Amino acid sequence: MYLKQFLDDLLGCASYLIASRDAGDAAIVDPSIHVEPYRALLEARGFQLHYVVDTHVHADHVSGARQLARAYPQAELCMHESAPVTYAFRPLRDGDELTLGSVRLRALHTPGHRAELVSLLVINLARSPDPEMVLTGDSLLVGDVGRPDFGGGDAVQQYESLQRLLDLPDGVIVFPGHFEGPCGKAMEGRPVTTIGFERQHNALTQVEKRQFVRRLTTDIPARPLNMTAIEATNRGRADMSWAMPASAAGVPELGLDELEARPAETMVLDVREPTEYAMGHVPGAINLPQADLASRLEELPRDRPLLLICRTGSRSLRAAQFLQQMGFGQVSNIPGGTSAWMNAGKPVVTS
Ligand SMILES: [Fe+2]
Protein backbone atom coordinates (compact mmCIF):
# COMPACT_ATOMS: atom_id res chain seq x y z
CA MET A 1 0.00 0.00 0.00
CA TYR A 2 1.12 3.52 -0.75
CA LEU A 3 -0.73 6.73 0.03
CA LYS A 4 0.26 10.30 -0.71
CA GLN A 5 -1.81 13.27 0.36
CA PHE A 6 -1.51 16.45 -1.72
CA LEU A 7 -2.49 19.72 -0.01
CA ASP A 8 -3.42 22.91 -1.85
CA ASP A 9 -2.80 25.78 0.58
CA LEU A 10 -4.43 28.41 -1.63
CA LEU A 11 -7.78 26.59 -1.67
CA GLY A 12 -7.56 24.31 1.37
CA CYS A 13 -8.15 21.19 -0.76
CA ALA A 14 -6.71 17.73 -0.22
CA SER A 15 -6.28 15.10 -2.94
CA TYR A 16 -4.83 11.63 -2.82
CA LEU A 17 -2.80 9.09 -4.76
CA ILE A 18 -3.31 5.56 -3.47
CA ALA A 19 -1.50 2.56 -4.89
CA SER A 20 -0.67 -1.02 -4.36
CA ARG A 21 3.12 -1.27 -4.20
CA ASP A 22 3.12 -4.95 -5.12
CA ALA A 23 0.97 -4.56 -8.24
CA GLY A 24 1.94 -0.97 -9.06
CA ASP A 25 -1.73 -0.06 -9.62
CA ALA A 26 -2.83 3.43 -8.60
CA ALA A 27 -5.90 5.61 -8.13
CA ILE A 28 -6.10 9.38 -7.75
CA VAL A 29 -8.94 10.85 -5.72
CA ASP A 30 -10.28 14.42 -6.02
CA PRO A 31 -7.42 15.69 -8.19
CA SER A 32 -6.68 19.37 -8.57
CA ILE A 33 -6.64 20.94 -12.06
CA HIS A 34 -2.87 21.23 -11.64
CA VAL A 35 -2.10 17.62 -12.50
CA GLU A 36 1.69 17.78 -12.90
CA PRO A 37 2.52 16.59 -9.34
CA TYR A 38 0.39 13.45 -9.89
CA ARG A 39 2.06 12.73 -13.22
CA ALA A 40 5.51 13.18 -11.66
CA LEU A 41 4.70 10.83 -8.79
CA LEU A 42 3.20 8.15 -11.06
CA GLU A 43 6.32 8.28 -13.18
CA ALA A 44 8.79 8.35 -10.30
CA ARG A 45 7.14 5.35 -8.66
CA GLY A 46 6.38 3.47 -11.89
CA PHE A 47 2.67 3.25 -10.97
CA GLN A 48 -0.07 2.55 -13.51
CA LEU A 49 -3.09 4.81 -13.08
CA HIS A 50 -6.29 2.73 -13.14
CA TYR A 51 -8.89 4.99 -11.55
CA VAL A 52 -9.54 8.69 -11.14
CA VAL A 53 -12.30 9.31 -8.63
CA ASP A 54 -14.16 12.54 -7.91
CA THR A 55 -15.97 12.03 -4.62
CA HIS A 56 -18.52 14.62 -5.77
CA VAL A 57 -19.03 17.57 -8.11
CA HIS A 58 -16.87 20.24 -6.53
CA ALA A 59 -18.06 23.81 -6.18
CA ASP A 60 -14.90 25.55 -4.97
CA HIS A 61 -12.21 24.23 -7.31
CA VAL A 62 -12.04 22.87 -10.83
CA SER A 63 -11.38 19.15 -10.85
CA GLY A 64 -8.45 17.68 -12.77
CA ALA A 65 -10.21 14.30 -13.11
CA ARG A 66 -11.19 14.56 -16.77
CA GLN A 67 -7.77 15.91 -17.68
CA LEU A 68 -6.09 12.92 -15.99
CA ALA A 69 -8.51 10.43 -17.54
CA ARG A 70 -7.70 11.87 -20.98
CA ALA A 71 -3.95 11.71 -20.34
CA TYR A 72 -4.13 8.11 -19.10
CA PRO A 73 -6.57 6.32 -21.43
CA GLN A 74 -6.45 3.08 -19.42
CA ALA A 75 -7.72 4.94 -16.34
CA GLU A 76 -11.45 5.00 -15.57
CA LEU A 77 -13.11 8.19 -14.39
CA CYS A 78 -15.37 7.20 -11.49
CA MET A 79 -18.16 9.03 -9.65
CA HIS A 80 -21.30 8.03 -7.84
CA GLU A 81 -23.99 6.86 -10.24
CA SER A 82 -26.15 9.88 -9.41
CA ALA A 83 -23.50 12.48 -10.34
CA PRO A 84 -25.26 15.18 -12.42
CA VAL A 85 -22.59 15.61 -15.08
CA THR A 86 -22.78 15.75 -18.88
CA TYR A 87 -19.76 13.52 -19.60
CA ALA A 88 -19.28 9.75 -19.43
CA PHE A 89 -17.93 8.10 -16.29
CA ARG A 90 -17.92 4.74 -14.53
CA PRO A 91 -20.85 4.84 -12.15
CA LEU A 92 -20.14 3.76 -8.58
CA ARG A 93 -22.88 2.28 -6.42
CA ASP A 94 -22.79 1.86 -2.67
CA GLY A 95 -20.56 -1.13 -1.88
CA ASP A 96 -18.76 -1.21 -5.25
CA GLU A 97 -15.05 -1.90 -4.98
CA LEU A 98 -12.13 -0.67 -7.07
CA THR A 99 -9.18 -3.06 -7.05
CA LEU A 100 -5.52 -1.99 -6.85
CA GLY A 101 -3.55 -5.20 -6.28
CA SER A 102 -4.32 -6.18 -2.69
CA VAL A 103 -5.86 -2.78 -1.96
CA ARG A 104 -9.59 -2.16 -2.28
CA LEU A 105 -11.39 1.17 -2.47
CA ARG A 106 -14.98 0.52 -1.39
CA ALA A 107 -17.61 3.13 -2.22
CA LEU A 108 -19.73 4.30 0.70
CA HIS A 109 -22.53 6.59 -0.44
CA THR A 110 -22.57 9.48 2.04
CA PRO A 111 -24.86 12.17 0.59
CA GLY A 112 -25.52 15.46 2.38
CA HIS A 113 -22.90 17.95 1.23
CA ARG A 114 -24.07 16.88 -2.20
CA ALA A 115 -26.41 14.07 -3.22
CA GLU A 116 -23.74 12.20 -5.17
CA LEU A 117 -20.99 12.28 -2.58
CA VAL A 118 -19.17 8.97 -2.05
CA SER A 119 -16.65 8.27 0.63
CA LEU A 120 -14.03 5.61 -0.09
CA LEU A 121 -13.10 2.99 2.45
CA VAL A 122 -9.49 1.92 1.98
CA ILE A 123 -8.83 -1.75 2.69
CA ASN A 124 -5.41 -3.35 2.49
CA LEU A 125 -6.10 -7.10 2.27
CA ALA A 126 -2.41 -7.82 2.80
CA ARG A 127 -2.96 -6.72 6.41
CA SER A 128 -6.65 -6.95 7.20
CA PRO A 129 -10.08 -7.35 5.64
CA ASP A 130 -11.19 -4.34 7.71
CA PRO A 131 -10.97 -0.76 6.44
CA GLU A 132 -8.00 1.12 7.84
CA MET A 133 -8.74 4.48 6.28
CA VAL A 134 -11.62 6.40 4.78
CA LEU A 135 -11.45 9.22 2.27
CA THR A 136 -14.50 11.29 3.13
CA GLY A 137 -14.59 13.99 0.46
CA ASP A 138 -16.68 16.72 2.10
CA SER A 139 -18.86 14.48 4.26
CA LEU A 140 -16.87 14.22 7.51
CA LEU A 141 -14.22 16.95 7.86
CA VAL A 142 -11.77 17.53 10.71
CA GLY A 143 -13.93 19.15 13.39
CA ASP A 144 -16.79 19.73 10.97
CA VAL A 145 -18.93 18.31 8.16
CA GLY A 146 -19.47 19.62 4.64
CA ARG A 147 -22.15 22.29 4.28
CA PRO A 148 -25.32 21.24 2.43
CA ASP A 149 -26.17 24.42 0.51
CA PHE A 150 -24.02 24.12 -2.64
CA GLY A 151 -26.81 22.52 -4.71
CA GLY A 152 -28.21 19.05 -4.27
CA GLY A 153 -27.18 18.88 -0.61
CA ASP A 154 -29.39 18.01 2.34
CA ALA A 155 -28.73 18.47 6.05
CA VAL A 156 -30.80 15.44 7.12
CA GLN A 157 -28.91 13.23 4.68
CA GLN A 158 -25.67 14.68 5.99
CA TYR A 159 -26.70 13.65 9.50
CA GLU A 160 -27.48 10.11 8.37
CA SER A 161 -24.23 9.86 6.41
CA LEU A 162 -22.32 11.06 9.46
CA GLN A 163 -23.90 8.31 11.58
CA ARG A 164 -22.86 5.81 8.92
CA LEU A 165 -19.27 6.98 9.07
CA LEU A 166 -19.31 7.02 12.88
CA ASP A 167 -20.24 3.33 12.79
CA LEU A 168 -16.69 2.65 11.63
CA PRO A 169 -14.18 1.56 14.29
CA ASP A 170 -12.40 4.28 16.29
CA GLY A 171 -9.02 3.61 14.72
CA VAL A 172 -10.06 4.24 11.13
CA ILE A 173 -8.07 7.19 9.81
CA VAL A 174 -10.08 9.94 8.15
CA PHE A 175 -8.66 11.78 5.16
CA PRO A 176 -11.00 14.65 4.15
CA GLY A 177 -11.35 16.53 0.87
CA HIS A 178 -10.70 19.85 2.59
CA PHE A 179 -8.69 21.03 5.57
CA GLU A 180 -9.56 24.73 5.15
CA GLY A 181 -11.80 26.81 2.95
CA PRO A 182 -15.48 27.55 2.48
CA CYS A 183 -16.90 23.99 2.38
CA GLY A 184 -17.45 23.92 6.14
CA LYS A 185 -17.79 26.40 9.01
CA ALA A 186 -15.40 25.09 11.64
CA MET A 187 -12.69 22.95 10.07
CA GLU A 188 -9.73 22.56 12.37
CA GLY A 189 -7.11 23.27 9.70
CA ARG A 190 -5.27 19.96 9.79
CA PRO A 191 -5.65 17.36 7.06
CA VAL A 192 -6.17 14.10 8.97
CA THR A 193 -8.11 12.74 11.93
CA THR A 194 -9.65 9.48 13.13
CA ILE A 195 -13.22 8.28 13.50
CA GLY A 196 -12.67 7.92 17.27
CA PHE A 197 -11.35 11.46 17.72
CA GLU A 198 -14.21 12.97 15.71
CA ARG A 199 -16.76 10.89 17.60
CA GLN A 200 -15.42 12.36 20.85
CA HIS A 201 -14.49 15.91 19.87
CA ASN A 202 -16.38 17.01 16.76
CA ALA A 203 -19.25 19.18 18.06
CA LEU A 204 -21.53 17.98 15.26
CA THR A 205 -21.18 14.34 16.33
CA GLN A 206 -22.49 15.27 19.81
CA VAL A 207 -25.92 16.60 18.83
CA GLU A 208 -29.21 14.96 17.90
CA LYS A 209 -30.66 15.23 14.43
CA ARG A 210 -32.80 18.36 14.86
CA GLN A 211 -30.02 20.36 16.40
CA PHE A 212 -27.57 19.08 13.77
CA VAL A 213 -29.88 20.24 10.97
CA ARG A 214 -30.38 23.62 12.65
CA ARG A 215 -26.63 24.12 12.96
CA LEU A 216 -26.10 23.30 9.29
CA THR A 217 -28.90 25.50 8.05
CA THR A 218 -28.31 28.66 10.10
CA ASP A 219 -25.46 31.18 9.95
CA ILE A 220 -24.56 29.87 6.52
CA PRO A 221 -21.21 31.22 5.34
CA ALA A 222 -20.75 32.91 1.98
CA ARG A 223 -20.55 30.73 -1.10
CA PRO A 224 -17.04 30.24 -2.52
CA LEU A 225 -15.41 32.58 -4.99
CA ASN A 226 -16.52 31.79 -8.56
CA MET A 227 -18.69 28.90 -7.40
CA THR A 228 -21.21 29.27 -10.24
CA ALA A 229 -18.56 29.01 -12.96
CA ILE A 230 -16.58 26.27 -11.19
CA GLU A 231 -19.59 24.05 -10.51
CA ALA A 232 -20.82 24.41 -14.11
CA THR A 233 -17.33 23.52 -15.38
CA ASN A 234 -17.14 20.42 -13.18
CA ARG A 235 -20.56 19.33 -14.42
CA GLY A 236 -19.42 19.69 -18.04
CA ARG A 237 -21.92 22.48 -18.70
CA ALA A 238 -19.25 25.16 -19.16
CA ASP A 239 -15.54 25.35 -19.78
CA MET A 240 -14.33 28.00 -17.39
CA SER A 241 -11.21 26.47 -15.86
CA TRP A 242 -9.77 29.98 -15.88
CA ALA A 243 -12.18 30.75 -13.02
CA MET A 244 -9.81 28.97 -10.63
CA PRO A 245 -8.11 31.49 -8.35
CA ALA A 246 -4.40 31.06 -9.02
CA SER A 247 -2.81 33.97 -7.24
CA ALA A 248 -2.31 35.38 -3.77
CA ALA A 249 -0.59 38.49 -5.14
CA GLY A 250 -0.72 41.81 -3.34
CA VAL A 251 -3.57 44.22 -4.10
CA PRO A 252 -3.55 48.03 -3.61
CA GLU A 253 -5.58 49.11 -0.58
CA LEU A 254 -7.83 52.08 -0.11
CA GLY A 255 -8.86 53.70 3.20
CA LEU A 256 -12.40 54.53 4.25
CA ASP A 257 -11.96 58.30 3.76
CA GLU A 258 -10.63 57.73 0.24
CA LEU A 259 -13.58 55.45 -0.42
CA GLU A 260 -15.95 58.17 0.73
CA ALA A 261 -14.22 60.82 -1.42
CA ARG A 262 -13.78 58.58 -4.47
CA PRO A 263 -13.97 60.02 -7.99
CA ALA A 264 -17.33 59.65 -9.73
CA GLU A 265 -16.06 57.15 -12.34
CA THR A 266 -15.08 54.63 -9.62
CA MET A 267 -17.18 51.49 -9.28
CA VAL A 268 -17.59 50.07 -5.77
CA LEU A 269 -18.23 46.34 -5.96
CA ASP A 270 -19.71 44.67 -2.88
CA VAL A 271 -18.94 40.93 -3.20
CA ARG A 272 -21.02 39.77 -0.22
CA GLU A 273 -24.16 37.66 -0.48
CA PRO A 274 -27.35 39.57 -1.44
CA THR A 275 -28.81 39.18 2.08
CA GLU A 276 -25.71 40.75 3.65
CA TYR A 277 -25.75 43.56 1.09
CA ALA A 278 -29.43 44.26 1.75
CA MET A 279 -28.76 44.66 5.48
CA GLY A 280 -26.44 47.60 4.88
CA HIS A 281 -23.95 48.69 2.25
CA VAL A 282 -21.82 51.66 1.24
CA PRO A 283 -23.94 54.15 -0.74
CA GLY A 284 -23.47 53.56 -4.47
CA ALA A 285 -21.96 50.08 -4.04
CA ILE A 286 -23.11 47.48 -6.55
CA ASN A 287 -23.71 43.91 -5.37
CA LEU A 288 -21.98 41.11 -7.25
CA PRO A 289 -21.58 38.10 -4.92
CA GLN A 290 -18.15 36.48 -5.11
CA ALA A 291 -19.79 33.19 -6.12
CA ASP A 292 -20.93 34.80 -9.39
CA LEU A 293 -17.86 36.92 -10.13
CA ALA A 294 -16.36 34.82 -12.95
CA SER A 295 -19.72 34.14 -14.58
CA ARG A 296 -20.62 37.87 -14.64
CA LEU A 297 -17.20 39.25 -15.51
CA GLU A 298 -18.48 40.95 -18.67
CA GLU A 299 -20.56 43.31 -16.48
CA LEU A 300 -17.42 44.91 -15.10
CA PRO A 301 -15.70 47.85 -16.81
CA ARG A 302 -12.00 47.44 -17.54
CA ASP A 303 -11.40 51.16 -18.00
CA ARG A 304 -12.62 52.37 -14.58
CA PRO A 305 -11.21 51.94 -11.08
CA LEU A 306 -12.84 49.06 -9.19
CA LEU A 307 -12.99 49.17 -5.39
CA LEU A 308 -13.83 45.82 -3.85
CA ILE A 309 -15.54 45.56 -0.51
CA CYS A 310 -17.04 42.78 1.61
CA ARG A 311 -17.72 42.46 5.35
CA THR A 312 -14.16 42.57 6.71
CA GLY A 313 -11.87 42.61 3.68
CA SER A 314 -11.01 38.91 3.19
CA ARG A 315 -13.47 37.95 0.46
CA SER A 316 -12.87 41.23 -1.35
CA LEU A 317 -9.11 40.62 -1.26
CA ARG A 318 -9.49 37.23 -2.96
CA ALA A 319 -11.97 38.66 -5.46
CA ALA A 320 -9.56 41.53 -6.21
CA GLN A 321 -6.70 39.06 -6.69
CA PHE A 322 -8.87 37.15 -9.13
CA LEU A 323 -9.76 40.31 -11.09
CA GLN A 324 -6.06 41.15 -11.32
CA GLN A 325 -5.47 37.59 -12.56
CA MET A 326 -8.07 38.31 -15.28
CA GLY A 327 -6.23 41.45 -16.39
CA PHE A 328 -8.23 44.14 -14.60
CA GLY A 329 -5.63 46.84 -14.04
CA GLN A 330 -7.31 49.28 -11.62
CA VAL A 331 -8.45 47.08 -8.73
CA SER A 332 -8.19 48.02 -5.05
CA ASN A 333 -9.35 46.37 -1.85
CA ILE A 334 -11.01 48.06 1.16
CA PRO A 335 -9.43 46.52 4.29
CA GLY A 336 -11.90 46.26 7.16
CA GLY A 337 -14.77 46.30 4.68
CA THR A 338 -18.34 47.32 5.43
CA SER A 339 -17.88 46.54 9.16
CA ALA A 340 -15.15 49.16 9.46
CA TRP A 341 -17.26 51.58 7.40
CA MET A 342 -20.21 51.13 9.76
CA ASN A 343 -18.02 51.32 12.87
CA ALA A 344 -16.66 54.62 11.61
CA GLY A 345 -20.22 55.98 11.60
CA LYS A 346 -20.33 56.52 7.85
CA PRO A 347 -23.65 56.44 5.97
CA VAL A 348 -25.19 53.09 5.10
CA VAL A 349 -27.95 52.14 2.67
CA THR A 350 -30.29 49.27 3.42
CA SER A 351 -32.61 47.68 0.90
FE1 LIG B 1 -17.29 19.98 -1.84
Topology, pairings included?
Blueprint: E1 2-8, E2 13-19, E3 25-29, H1 36-45, E4 48-53, H2 65-71, E5 76-80, E6 90-92, E7 97-100, E8 103-109, E9 118-124, E10 131-137, E11 140-141, E12 144-145, H3 155-166, E13 173-176, E14 193-194, H4 195-201, H5 209-217, H6 227-235, H7 256-260, E15 267-270, H8 274-278, E16 286-287, E17 306-309, H9 314-325, E18 331-333, H10 337-343
This protein binds fe (ii) ion.
Characterization of this structure:
The chain has 351 residues and is of the alpha/beta class. The protein contains ten helices and 18 strands. The protein starts with a strand and ends in an 8-residue tail after the last helix. 48% of the residues are buried. Bound molecules: fe (ii) ion. Fe (ii) ion is lined by residues 56, 58-59, 113, 138, 146, 183.
The low-confidence runs, each spanning 5 or more residues with pLDDT under 50, are none
Q: Outline the biggest β-sheet.
A: 6 strands, mixed
What is the distance, rounded to the nearest whole angstrom, between the alpha carbons of the first and last residues? 58 Å
User: What is the H/E order?
Assistant: EEEHEHEEEEEEEEHEEHHHHEHEEHEH
Structural class: alpha/beta
Bound molecules: fe (ii) ion
